[in-house]
Write a structure and sequence with these properties.
13 strands, 13-stranded mixed β-sheet, 13 helices, disordered N terminus, alpha+beta
């Protein structure tokens, strides 16, 4: 049974009803409405809050404490907002606090919850006060991370008093807006050697044999491709690998390829030399945005920079598609060679209990957030 939490008249024309989803059966029943909502909103930064990604994550990892808060308006059968979250406990200085965070951290670079255009200012206060604070008894909400352009973040800041919200900022978000310009013109304006270097590496590789760029790579055994990618990625990044704390993350990406591939939300691309995979990339596609997510390369060919060659091919494709190429978050030097902007990732923390703020305000910073975010 879906629990109806609150039916509150928040304006003369909008009647909101919030429901809590906690079972796979309820989640599956929400698929069509959630997809319709995600397709109707103007933002293209909401992949990690899509039904397809959320369902795959929940069904594979089976996390404890997951909930999906769904808002309906005026008796509509299609939701007007969806919030996939997860509860956990913060223990500090002998005290425990009930917290919620976006579902799927640390896999997600940033999130944008699907919310019908024009109702954020009305909906968010009711979500916070009636659902999270009153019904779910939440002490602390980690509501993000959001991209620099997030409309939800702006509405959230405007709706809350300053003593109830704290924002962590990390200037690590990089992207290339490929719309309205050509690939060649963009890099001519950059006056950097990045693209010439990539092309020089490509020529050197072609001297070794037949070089082939596949996007997507329709190899008959996709699980084998993902296994090679994940093994090489772990070798490339070692102990610094962001996903190293996650159980069976390689298996999760195989699940994503199987579930999201048929609906065009995931892309496996490779650079092959005489048929051998020397660089590969697993990325996400959502409403014109290409997420550069999980790259890897064969270290035997590292002197030829095959990942740089593959990245150049993917960026060029984004220009042809008139889309956005997103590097995600992270302070890797190569990003500044390619992109024209570095933006902020914003992590708003909402304190519902003054005692929680007094106890956790100094404790929660960017460094501790990394530890807190991976708690189950």
């Amino acid at each position: 049974m879906i629990t109806s939490i609150v039916s509150a008249t928040t304006s003369p024309i909008l009647h909101l009803d919030f429901r809590i989803i906690t079972t796979i059966t309820q989640l599956d029943a929400l698929k069509d409405g959630w997809r319709a909502l995600s397709g109707s909103v103007q933002e293209n930064t909401g992949f990690f809050a899509s039904w397809d990604y959320t369902a795959a994550y929940i069904k594979f990892h089976r996390p404890n404490g997951w909930v999906v808060i769904v808002a309906y308006a005026d008796s509509s059968k299609i939701p007007v907002a969806v919030f996939p979250l997860m509860s956990f406990t913060i223990a500090h200085d002998g005290k425990s606090f009930k917290a919620y965070k976006a579902l799927g951290i640390p896999y997600i670079s940033y999130i944008e919850f699907p919310i019908q255009d024009g109702i954020r200012e009305v909906l968010l206060p009711k979500l916070l006060s009636d659902v999270l604070q009153t019904y779910l008894r939440c002490d602390v909400l980690f509501f993000g991370p959001f991209s620099e352009s997030s409309l939800t973040y702006l509405a959230l800041v405007e709706s809350l008093p300053k003593d109830q919200i704290k924002t962590l900022r990390h200037r690590t978000l990089s992207q290339i807006d490929c719309r309205g310009q050509s690939f060649e013109d963009f890099f001519a304006q950059r006056k950097k050697s990045t693209l010439p270097d990539a092309r020089r590496c490509e020529r050197r590789l072609r001297e070794l044999g037949q070089l082939e760029f596949r996007c997507p790579d329709h190899h008959s055994d996709r699980n084998e491709l993902v296994a090679v990618l994940c093994r090489q990625s772990a070798e490339n990044f070692g102990s610094k690998h962001l996903l190293g704390t996650q159980s069976d993350w390689a298996g999760f990406f195989s699940k994503l390829i199987a579930e999201l591939g048929p609906v065009g939300l995931i892309e496996m691309s490779t650079l092959r030399l005489d048929g051998r995979v020397i660089a590969s990339h697993l990325g996400f596609l959502f409403k014109g945005r290409r997420y550069y997510y999980l790259p890897a390369y064969d270290q035997e060919f590292s002197r030829f920079s095959p990942s740089k060659v593959l990245m150049a091919k993917l960026i060029e494709r984004s220009f042809h598609e008139n889309g956005v190429f997103c590097f995600g978050s992270g302070t890797y030097p190569y990003k500044l060679d390619w992109c024209q902007t570095v933006g902020e990732v914003k992590i708003p923390i909402v304190f519902f209990d003054p005692a929680a703020r007094r106890a956790l305000d100094e404790y929660i910073d960017l460094r501790s957030y990394g530890r807190i975010a991976v708690q189950q």
